[in-house]
Specification:
alpha+beta; 13 helices; 11 strands; three-stranded antiparallel sheet; 9% strand; four-stranded mixed sheet; 393 residues; Cytochrome p450
């Protein structure tokens, strides 16, 4: 067992997450199968260089606008399929939202130029990687970790071939459409010294974003549907907001726009409340690079430091009646006073996909089903339920 410490004060937690000189990222070996990202196991300066390279193509609503049409199409198609299957038998909502979120992420990276079969193959291979991420690191046939390592290699080969294909197309002057995949954009960006991302960096980014993004997004989607079902007044307000946006849409406009997303003020509050109330079992993990004094205590060099954002998200000190699902608590910014709400992290290591995760009628069959809590809270029946298509008035 490696020694570690849990930090329970907000000030100390934010200090640990923000100080990259004294604390570096440190996660279990199995968790790193899919997260060997150039944003993780590098120095602070190199990390900043990578962030500068990817900030423009990935972060911010304006940058994400180019991916909005395929995201909308995938979500609509997936919901239609769920509703169709629900007429015959209940669906496992968490399985459905996991498939949906991973499909979106993979499509954003490589979707425009490759067949549906390739995307499906990557999704299938990633399933085993998910399963092994919280298992024992036993690299022997028959164990999840062994299978996950094999699958990672297969995904790497697929993505490497795609990167090589795109590089060759660019070299030969082949025309690239305006709506580029993210792999195209990452191949083009360069820092102030003219350096570009290495091929292996791009491959690792796909792996890291897919792993880090699809489970959290899928869980948030599942609980959003559950909480909206259980809170009819909240659902009514969300529906009314969407109807108003559609009524003001020009007749020539057929698809969702970033301007419309910015108008979804109440829906944003609902999403914030879902992210606040979900009790993630995986903490932020850091390791002290030197002896560090915090609040009069010494954290020895090499010790692991664990921070659970749920300690603050569920604290009555920052969120009155914390167990209550109440989107109206976000009517003003007092709830973020002191930085108590940080579902995507803190500092330069904040999740690069935090904006993407926000772009995305359910009847739960067993509402009293007990929950499991690893790695995230979810019903043990995988949220068995029925999806029904409704029309906007």
């Amino acid at each position: 067992m490696k020694p570690g410490i849990v930090v329970h004060t907000l000030e100390a937690s934010r200090k640990v997450l923000s100080d990259e000189n004294k604390f570096k990222l440190a996660y279990p070996e199995t968790h790193l199968i899919a997260t060997q990202s150039p944003l993780i196991n590098v120095s602070s300066e190199e990390h900043k260089r990578f962030r500068r390279l990817i900030t423009t193509p990935i972060l911010g609503y304006n940058s994400l606008a180019k991916f909005l049409d395929p995201i909308e199409s995938i979500v609509i198609e997936s919901l239609e399929e769920m509703a169709s299957r629900s007429t015959k038998q209940p669906v496992m909502l968490i399985k459905e939202t996991m498939a949906l979120s991973l499909r979106v992420i993979v499509h954003i990276f490589i979707g425009s130029y490759h067949h549906h079969n390739t995307i499906q193959k990557v999704q299938h291979l990633f399933g085993a990687i998910d399963e092994a991420s919280f298992s024992w690191p036993i690299n022997f046939p028959g164990f999840p970790y062994y299978k996950a390592l094999k699958n990672r290699k297969k995904v790497e080969e697929i993505v490497k071939s795609i990167v090589e294909e795109r590089k060759l197309m660019i070299k030969n002057g082949s025309e690239v459409t305006e709506k580029k995949d993210l792999v195209d954009i990452l191949l083009e960006v360069e820092d102030v010294d003219g350096r570009k991302l290495k091929d292996e960096d791009i491959v690792n980014m796909l792996m890291a974003f897919s792993f880090a993004g699809h489970l959290t997004t899928a869980t948030a989607l599942m609980w959003s549907m559950v909480y909206l079902t259980k809170n009819t007044l909240v659902l009514k307000k969300v529906k009314e907001e969407q109807e108003e946006i559609l009524k003001s849409r020009p007749s020539s406009q057929k698809h969702l726009s970033m301007e419309e997303i910015k108008k979804m003020v109440y829906l944003t509050k609902v999403i914030n409340e879902v992210l606040r109330i979900i009790q993630w079992a995986i903490p932020f993990c850091r390791k002290a690079t030197t002896d560090v004094e915090i609040n009069g205590y010494i954290i020895p060099k090499g010790w692991s430091v664990f921070i659970w954002q749920r300690d603050y998200h569920r604290s009555p000190e920052y969120f009155p009646n914390p167990e209550e699902f109440n989107p109206s608590r976000w009517d003003n910014n007092d709830n973020t006073k002191g930085g108590a709400f940080f579902p995507f992290g803190v500092g330069t290591r904040i999740c690069p996909g935090r904006d993407l995760s926000k772009i995305e009628m359910f009847e739960q069959i067993n509402p009293e089903c007990p929950l499991s809590y690893m790695p995230a809270p979810m019903p043990k029946d995988n949220c068995l339920g029925k999806v029904t298509k409704v029309t906007m008035e």
